[in-house]
Design goal:
elongated; about 425 residues; alpha/beta; about 45% helix
């Protein structure tokens, strides 16, 4: 097994500076404890000749940790974390050596390691039915997602405080929220939504497309929306429902068939609102259309004495996991105890393992907010030609089954089950 130090610091988007402050502190502490520069380098696996050369230079720096020593420690740690550990993990996974793989993860091997063919450790564990390894990878992956969500939230707080408020407000926010950093590129980044709202949309036969030829909603999703409506309103009549994102109106039509007591729709796009007006939705009895983004129109509803909705569905476009999880923070003020929440579960639907990672992250996040989430499998059928004319690479659904979230807000007497 590879002999490595436990991970010293997480990976960063800035590879040149990631962990440099930590390394300076670590090296200074080791020197203060009596370790020589050469001993420090040797403990990280640096070859003796190189360790001696850098160590001699560091000792000449009048007792202070020379920058070359600190940089070499950083480079060695990164080489282990970013190169040696992923390679060793993938070798263990391919060989079916579960104990070795788990030990490598404990030593800091990244959960999203891939081999030379682009296959992830999680995909192989899923294919081979390796439950122990898959569970460990899901735990590490979902923890990483939740960390990214928290980082994006703190970055948003700093940005908001910088753009408005007093100087004291900005200083307080910066002190408590940490540095503003870029959100995770693949599944994060709500700035895309503001760009989408400025686009002209096209209503075609069985689909709604944006200016970039991305499918906003397609007819093949109709059975999924029927399943969502049934989960949200298992009994006809009486429910107060909220839907975020009208699109083609598939879920709202399904909800209307279940005769809700009230039906609130949040829709921000001007072209969709025009289509809703033409379809009579703005005048339909029992239907209230809130024109604007959910970030703008929903927070005031959270101030009501009692949560106003029995069932809530979230299906916006061009918003990432950071915005989905930020919406989840509003649920305690919007959804009554015993009420049901669901969302269109399309994040990372190109990869079965990564999709599971986001499901698990959502489950854990919702549990922390007082909701118990389960995922019901629904078979997906997409007809040939469905993606014709869509943006290259936008055949984004690669899974045989859709994991339909059913999230019930726990009543106080139900207590807190383990997450």
């Amino acid at each position: 097994m590879l002999d490595v130090h436990v991970t010293m610091f997480p990976s960063s988007s800035d590879p040149d500076e990631a962990g440099i402050d930590y390394c300076r502190q670590y090296v200074a502490a080791q020197l203060a404890a009596g370790a020589s520069p050469q001993q420090i380098l040797s403990s990280f696996g640096v070859e003796a000749a190189e360790a001696a050369t850098i160590g001699d230079a560091a000792e000449a720096a009048e007792g202070q940790a020379g920058e070359a020593l600190v940089r070499r420690v950083l480079a060695q740690v990164r080489a282990v974390q970013d190169e040696a550990l992923p390679r060793a993990l993938m070798a263990a996974v391919h060989a079916g050596q579960t104990a070795e793989a788990l030990a490598l993860m404990e030593a800091g091997a990244p959960w999203d390691a891939i081999d030379s063919f682009g296959h992830s450790a999680g995909a192989i564990a899923l294919r081979d039915g390796n439950t122990a390894l898959l569970d460990a990878l899901l735990e590490a992956g979902s923890s990483s997602v939740l960390w990214e969500v928290d980082r994006a939230s703190r970055s948003e707080a700093v940005t908001a405080a910088t753009d408005s408020g007093t100087a004291a407000d900005r200083d307080d926010a910066a002190a408590t929220a940490g540095p503003a950093e870029a959100a995770h590129e693949a599944c994060f980044g709500h700035s895309l939504h503001s760009d989408f709202l400025q686009q002209r949309l096209r209503f075609e036969e069985g689909r709604l497309m944006d200016e970039l030829d991305r499918p906003v909603m397609m007819a093949w999703e109709a059975p999924l929306m029927e399943a969502h409506a049934a989960a949200l309103c298992p009994e006809e009549g009486g429910a107060r429902v909220l839907n975020l994102g009208f699109g083609l109106g598939l879920v709202d039509t399904a909800l209307q068939r279940r005769r809700p007591a009230s039906h609130t729709i949040v829709e921000p796009h001007a072209d969709v609102l025009l289509a809703m007006r033409r379809g009579g939705w703005l005048e339909r009895a029992g239907v209230t259309v809130l024109q604007g983004t959910w970030q703008g129109v929903l927070p005031p509803l959270c101030d009501e004495a009692d949560p106003p909705f029995d069932a809530i569905f979230f299906d916006t476009f061009a918003e990432g996991a950071d915005e989905l999880f930020r919406f989840h923070e509003l649920l305690p003020g919007l959804l009554r105890p015993g009420g049901v929440y669901s969302y269109f579960n399309g994040i990372a639907s190109h990869d079965a393992f990564l999709h599971r990672v986001y499901c698990e992250a959502a489950r854990r996040h919702l549990h922390s907010l007082g909701l118990t989430a389960t995922f019901e499998p629904v078979r997906v059928s997409v007809a040939p030609g469905t993606w014709e004319g869509a943006e290259a690479g936008r055949n984004w659904w690669a899974l045989e089954h859709y994991s339909l979230p059913v999230c019930v807000r726990r009543r106080r007497e139900e207590g807190e089950a383990d997450g």
